[in-house]
Amino acid sequence: MVKLFRESVREAVMETKEMSIGNYEEAISLWESCESVGLDKRTDSRERISIYLQRNPGLSFVALENSKVVGVVLCGHEGRRGYLHHLAVAEGYRRKGVGKALVERVVSKLRLVGIRACHIFVFADNIDGQEFWQNIGWNERTDLKIMSKNITL
Ligand SMILES: CC(C)(COP(=O)(O)OP(=O)(O)OC[C@H]1O[C@@H](n2cnc3c(N)ncnc32)[C@H](O)[C@@H]1OP(=O)(O)O)[C@@H](O)C(=O)NCCC(=O)NCCS
Predict the structure, then answer these.
(1) Ligand 1 centroid vs 151 CA: distance in angstroms?
(2) Quick check: pTM over 0.70?
(3) Does 138 sit in the ligand 1 pocket, CB within 6 Å?
(4) Within 10 Å of residue 100's Cβ, how many Cβ atoms?
(5) What pairs with residue 61 in β-bridges?
(6) Closest Cα partner for 85 from 51, 116, 61?
(7) What residue's CA is closest to ligand 1, atom 48?
(8) Which of 52, 82, 131, 146 has a beta carbon 3.0–4.6 Å from 77's, enabling a disulfide?
(9) pLDDT per residue over 4-47, tens digit each?
(10) Going by CATH, does the domain composed of 2-135 fall within 1.40.20.10?
(11) Which DSSP letter does residue 22 get?
């Protein structure tokens, strides 16, 4: 667990820790409160996120204030590159370094397991999100487009 800062007035301690499936309900509420996080019932169900966390141990994190989830990020890799998803910080906790701290924990862990590049997907109309990524040192790839396919049963 990594302490981010201590708020002396309220004696509250903000910290980050590895996400477990027990954090799912609070994480999904936070994601649902953010228009710019693209949720999909098929891929973001409790069952799918549980499988995701098991396949990618130690790469997803929550930020907690007094045990309450105020930030979350998912990350996984396939042996070559990391893919970071669903970074969100609760309104009221933004611009305090929480998002950056979560991303730094992910990047440190990717480095430890030998991964040397990581991607994120940001909606083209999420200008604030893009500024965040640029301001913390991530580069926009103007040479790529995403192609997707739904896989039906
Ligand atoms: C994007 C988001 C995760 C940033 O989290 P945060 O905790 O507020 O970010 P931080 O405080 O760590 O910001 C680090 C730096 O990023 C930049 N930044 C953060 N939010 C920004 C914004 N809205 N506009 C411009 N720059 C921003 C700043 O340079 C900031 O440093 P500063 O506060 O010293 O100026 C948060 O705003 C959020 O949850 N947004 C909704 C969901 C979302 O868009 N997620 C990203 C999906 S790809």
Answers:
(1) 33
(2) yes
(3) no
(4) 15
(5) 18, 73
(6) 61
(7) 122
(8) 82
(9) 655 443 445 789 999 999 999 999 999 999 999 999 999 999 99
(10) no
(11) G
